[in-house]
Amino acid sequence: MKTAIVCGAGGFIGGHLVKRLKEEGYWVRGVDLKEHEFGMHYADDFVLGDLRDPRVCEALFDRHIDEVYQLAADMGGAGYIFTGEHDAVVMHNSATINLNMVEAARLAKAGKIFYSSSACMYPEYNQMDPDNPKCSEDSAYPAMPDSEYGWEKLFSERLYLSYHRNWGMEVRVARFHNIFGPQGTWTGGREKAPAALCRKVAEAGNPGEIEIWGDGLQTRSFLYIDECVEAVRRLMESDFTGPVNIGSEEMVTINGLAELIADIAGKEISLRHVEGPQGVRGRNSDNALIYEKLGWKPTQSLRAGLEKTYAWIEEQVKAAEQV
Description:
Elements: E1 3-7, H1 12-23, E2 27-32, E3 45-48, H2 54-59, E4 67-70, H3 78-81, H4 87-107, E5 112-118, H5 148-167, E6 170-176, E7 179-180, H6 193-203, E8 208-213, E9 219-220, E10 223-224, H7 225-237, E11 244-246, E12 252-253, H8 254-265, E13 269-274, H9 288-294, H10 302-322
Parallel strand pairs: 1-2, 1-4, 2-3, 4-5, 5-6, 6-11, 7-10, 8-13
Antiparallel strand pairs: 9-12
């Protein structure tokens, strides 16, 4: 039986990844500061621990571990990342976690280690045109991420790749592009655009009105969680180190995303544009490299993923209203 550690198992992507690994027959140890708030309790062993403490990281390796998935980070949506108010804690917390985990894995002679980077590490100057953003893997330098969160991701990519070069560690690095789906944060300030808009539409009347940050013409692509986990597993099973994009090429404006969710909900929703953090003007995954190396591309539409996500968030909203 293969063994795996999932760091950040109490979070959205980590919870889904633990479930997938268990379905594949792995023995899985999850670790996080908190348990999964939506009941994704599939790990054989779950450690409530702070990965900023190197002793916690070292204690995870009390047996041989074949695969480590390092997803733990101090993160959130635009309302958390782009205000500038959390820059110091985001950089300190996430960098400390990565420094601790890669060294603990090296000392324990773990098998492979996966690091989840982010599309936020791409240069802002290539993402000014909402209709033609450039996010191919080779466009990362000269570096100029749009946030300190992105700078930390870029640093940590280089950290893991240096351990690969200097210590021969089997490293895999992927750059996630806006992963969404059920069992993720949907309220409280750290939620990302799909969840936030699903919540706003679910809470609105019919007809109703919701707020959009900025003019809504900024573009993004969004990848459903099951697609993300599939791509991660393919990368880990491959001989390709990366970095490689894991995302969708189905680009949409934020206005268009809101209108699509309203259509799924069967509501007439008007959009009111207000000031708010937005990030870059345009971002879209470039999947040429991952298709070349892994033969992978997303298999379902944005709408299909949003239908499942909206249904789940609508349930959460209704349950919260009854409390």
